[in-house]
Amino acid sequence: MSRRLKTCEAADWKVCATTLGIHTVPDTLPPIRRAWTRLALLLFAFLCVLCGHLSGAHAARPNIVFVLTDDFGWGDLGSYGGAFVPTPNLDRMAREGIRFTQFYVASPICSPSRTGCTTGMFPARWRITSYLQTRKGNAACGQADFLDPEAPSLARLLKASGYATAHIGKWHMGGGRDVTNAPSILRYGFDECISTWESPNPHPDITATNWIWSPQDKVKRWDRTAFFVDQTLDFLRRHPGQPCYVNLWPDDTHTPFVPSPALKQKYNAANNPSGERNFQGVLEEYDRQMGRLLDGLKQLGLATNTLVVFTGDNGPSPTYDHRRTAGLRGSKLSLYEGGIREPLLVWWPGHAPTGRVNERTVLTTVDLLPSFCQIAGASIPGELAAKLDGEDLSAAFTGGTPTRTKPVLWEYGRNTNSFAYPKAPRDRSPNVAVREGDWKLLLNADGSGAELYDLAADPKEEKDLATERPDVTKRLSERAVNWRKALP
Ligand SMILES: [Ca+2]
Q1: In angstroms, what is the span from residue 305 Cα to ligand 1's centroid?
Q2: Domain region containing 20
Q3: What's the gap in Å between 79 CA and the centre of ligand 1?
Q4: Are 397 and 64 in contact (CB under 8 A)?
Q5: Tens digit of pLDDT for each residue in 13-26?
Q6: Number of structural domains found in the chain
Q7: What would the pLDDT profile of 59-87 be if each residue is shown by its tens digit?
Q8: Are residues 33 and 123 in the same domain?
Q9: pTM, whole model, 2 decimals?
């Protein structure tokens, strides 16, 4: 009966009456009793739906589609000043929703960044501080081979509250290369999954070989995001009357850049998997697919009850002379802003205001778990809530400008042998950082090499204030070093 009632909350009262079994009242009952039973079910269905509307339950359980783009740049989007190619679809998303300018990911590289999205915790707490690779490589980095399936999981919490859940796209929190014992993605709270070679669940149509892509793949590299968008829309179509949570995590715009033959010709691109012309073709197609996603939601009648959140997992590589970071210092693999500050677009017609730019709220991917749970009406057990590094800033998704109360902390890499990146000296950061208010401090794990920046005045991190403001430097250094010492 409880499953039937949940369906009732999301359906109109006629559907609800059907769900409750109005058409299956036994014919063996006397006619009078049959009529009274049907009338009672109709009345009950009407009251169920009325109560759902009055309590806000109907509107409070939207679908959530979380788009995590691979290796994306602040300067890739037109709405953030990018000029590589027109990005009309993602710019439309910004015009029809909210664009954030102070959004951060949990790490400047895939695996720990994704761990932050999944767990609502700083990824170093789960011993993931770089990209997950071979077992030998992971050991050299002092990190785990995969995300502990006992770690908190956003999808698991949403599933427990009645959501249908799917992971579609790159995973990179375990599996691939010689790590053959990583738990299935389904262990992390997903009903369904489709993934790439860096996962325990590679889809055969995109993994003909044990590598990012192959010419033998049934779905070609340049059609892969379209494939993931199709799968996302299909999942939503197959779950009418049930709220859905979908990780749509494409592996564009990660190298190798392999545009379609037509786009390769349009941009006169050579066979250069990291070339700018190749990137232009990939970005144009990626933007087109994001438009297909939004249009598909409208065609399914789901646009006003689906929250779409678009961002990237870490900064770009290559940066093409920092045009892809819009001049921010750093890149992928760096704790300077170019590695961790990402575009964030929130599209939720009828709920999020149009054309809003939020320049005040400092939001991070570890805040997504508590914020999405709040929006979905999913409860977080108290013991788990106390462990989270993120906080509920869901008011920002409907146009508010909440102020965070917790600092943001990062660790990237555990030793200098494994982390001699990026190669450009000016982009290579210390490996621990903290942001508190407008201050950002970076330093080495042993407390040396502190650099202090006032991001409100100096977002490009050009003027180190560590010696000018010893009070702030001392306070934040102690905070960051003590945090680092407490990590497993
Ligand atoms: Ca990435």
Answers
A1: 29
A2: 2-55
A3: 21
A4: no
A5: 443 443 344 555 55
A6: 3
A7: 569 999 999 999 999 999 999 999 999 99
A8: no
A9: 0.88
